[in-house]
TrEMBL record:
It comes from Pichia kluyveri. Pathway: Pyrimidine metabolism; UMP biosynthesis via de novo pathway; orotate from (S)-dihydroorotate (quinone route): step 1/1. This is Dihydroorotate dehydrogenase (quinone), mitochondrial. Its EC number is 1.3.5.2. Belongs to the dihydroorotate dehydrogenase family. Type 2 subfamily. One of its GO terms (biological process) is pyrimidine ribonucleotide biosynthetic process. It is a single-pass membrane protein. Its cofactor is FMN. InterPro entries: Aldolase_TIM, DHO_dehydrogenase, Dihydroorotate_DH_2, Dihydroorotate_DH_cat, Dihydroorotate_DH_CS. Residues 103-418 form the Dihydroorotate dehydrogenase catalytic domain. Binds 1 FMN per subunit.
Amino acid sequence: MFSSSFRQSLKNTLFKRSATSSTSSKSIIHSSILPLPKSSLLIACALGLGIYSLDARSAINEYVYCPLIRFFTTAEQGHILGIHCLKAGLYPRLFSDFDDKILNVNVFGKILSNPIGMAAGFDKHGEVIDPLFNLGFGYVEIGSITPEPQPGNPAPRFFRLSADDAVINRYGFNSVGHLEVLARLKYRFNNLINKNPNAELNSFQKDKFLAINLGKNKTGDEINDYLKGVQNFGPYADALVINVSSPNTPGLRDLQNESKLTNLLTKVVNERNNLNGELINPNIKPPILVKIAPDLTEPEIASIAKSAKDAKIDGIILSNTTIQRPIDKLITKGDIVNENGGLSGKPLKPIALKAFKLLRKYTKDSNLVLVGCGGISNGKDAIEFAKAGATFVQLYTAFAYQGPGLARKIKDEITSELKKEGKTWMEIVGSDDK
Ligand SMILES: Cc1cc2nc3c(=O)[nH]c(=O)nc-3n(C[C@H](O)[C@H](O)[C@H](O)COP(=O)(O)O)c2cc1C
């Protein structure tokens, strides 16, 4: 590992250090550094930097590596590079990732060790499930997956608004299709069940969930595409998400209309009930959540709440990206702001939170689990969504900007805030109602 010249310098240094033990500390430092040849010093620095960078929490990830990646890549190239690095194991680790019990979430009859989830769209094809869990997420949602492979919209289709910590995307459900993701999940399952035959969750992680987000093909059937998703992925999921809110598939958001949504979700629930159960535990069938847009009026939100209750689904994720452009609040100017697609990241937060509060108004009389998403980038944002009624939260864009230590950072911020308030996460969920 060390070059011979470096080893020799180290020896010399150590020797000199003992020989000069009676001299002042100033002269010890002087004599221990100067004899090192320049190349050895460089190697030592590189080694130190390497070790420092290995920790996902190091500031160097957010302030050096992420900006460098942004400088040298387009948004889509950066995304692909991130997936490749995670897949190849080339990512910094969390050397200790203990979730304090005050972060525990009671949800769907199980315990989630922390309330921070990776939202759909980052790992569309289920390639980096375990690396994401290793980075501290309590919940990882893969997808959206469409039944048949489809390329999505032509590039460019992903744009950074770096000054706003935001992005616009119009990927349009680029998906490798059910079969490829299924093959990947089957391989993962067979591999992990041998190592961990007593696992209780499809995530194969203690108190962490693997969720699978289902989409429809551009020219697919607006009911059957989702039913196929339930049949294929139900056995591998700790939760299934019905995505009817991507702004980039023509007509998709119309599925949020009350009669269409009640019809779709009722069929999805029936299909889920007909499953033989999850592979990991045949006595359990995955909860169903629907993911909705932030661009809804109050009557639309009320009607979605009614559909969800009538169809007896288990939860609602709010929200997907927005088609709004809060121009006066954006620092980024120019044509990029008007690119078609969905805006996510910091500017989405007030829009999503406002819609979320309305959703809470129409669901607090039910057992529906609400999941907050949209512009969450720190512990304060997560707590705001929790107090407004989110049982847990998800994020994506902030991860792209802040890098691999983000989940851990947010968990630490929430833990310290909860300790100050003398409450647990579950005690603050919906506390704004009171
Ligand atoms: C590049 C990109 C691709 C996305 N793809 C999907 C998707 O396939 N399915 C989905 O339900 N949401 C998708 N989303 C939406 C995110 O899951 C999330 O709801 C949204 O970005 C808001 O959260 P954020 O502000 O933390 O990013 C995507 C978001 C981005 C930025």
